Structure formats: structure tokens, C-alpha cells
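Is this the right way to post C-alpha cells for a design question? Let me know if I should format differently. Anyway, here goes:
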């Protein structure tokens, strides 16, 4: 019979660092999504006026969608920081949803949406890469 593999503190620290960094980054994405939603709901003129767009919704509707998704992203980030399995799965799913929403809002705020899409991609990579069972 083989002996169980002993826990390696450096690997555990690295795994914790990855999950903590991804959770922190996801909190930043959540905050930016909420701020984007507040800006859209308040109609402050930050967003471009778009005509003849297939996914055209009222700007305040996009704003409320981003606020709700941002709040859910914050919950997922806390679960990811705690190292919970549900947090990892929830974070990956919501980051993917956030990517789709930001893709759909590209005509309204192009650079902002591109930055959030890139941050979501990093969060998905980090959350999918970390495996707490590997020691």
C-alpha cells in the first residue's frame, strides 16, 4: 500500500494565495459592476447613445441588471475567499454571466466593458485552476 502524501505548506499557501487573489479581484469586478449600474440608473451621461442595436434596452434596465449581478458577484467573491466549493462554482458561473452582460453593453461603454471582460476572464482562470484537494 502506498502512504498518503503529506501536506506541502508551500503548495497550500500558493493555492490559498490564488483563491484569495481571485476573490479580491472578483470583489473589484463586483464594485465596478455596481458602480456601472448606478451610473446607468442615474442617467448621468457617461454612456453613449446607441441606435439600431439588437439588444437595445433602456439604460436604466441595463443599470439594474448590473447592480444585481454586481451584488451576486460580491457574494461569490466572499465564498471564493473562504475557499468554499460553492464559492468557486458560483464565482465561475457569475463571472461568465458578467462577461456576457459586458459584451452586450459594449456599444454603451466600450472601454469599461472590455476591462471588465478581461478581469472576469482572469477570475474564471484563477477559480478554475485552484484545486484545494491537491496538496
Amino acid at each position: 500500500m502506498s502512504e498518503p502524501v503529506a501536506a506541502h505548506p508551500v503548495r497550500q499557501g500558493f493555492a490559498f494565495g490564488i483563491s484569495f487573489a481571485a476573490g479580491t479581484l472578483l470583489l473589484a469586478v463586483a464594485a465596478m459592476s455596481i458602480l456601472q449600474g448606478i451610473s446607468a440608473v442615474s442617467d448621468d451621461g457617461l454612456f453613449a447613445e446607441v441606435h439600431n442595436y439588437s439588444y437595445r434596452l433602456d439604460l436604466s434596465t441595463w443599470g439594474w441588471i448590473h447592480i444585481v449581478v454586481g451584488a451576486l458577484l460580491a457574494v461569490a467573491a466572499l465564498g471564493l475567499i473562504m475557499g468554499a466549493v460553492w464559492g468557486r462554482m458560483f464565482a465561475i458561473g457569475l463571472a461568465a454571466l458578467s462577461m456576457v452582460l459586458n459584451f452586450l453593453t459594449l456599444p454603451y461603454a466600450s472601454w469599461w466593458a472590455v476591462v471588465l471582460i478581461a478581469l472576469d476572464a482572469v477570475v474564471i482562470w484563477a477559480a478554475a485552476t485552484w484545486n484545494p484537494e491537491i496538496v
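Format looks fine. Someone answered above. Worth noting: The CA atoms of residues 79 and 86 lie 7 Å apart. The chain is about 70% helix and 0% strand.
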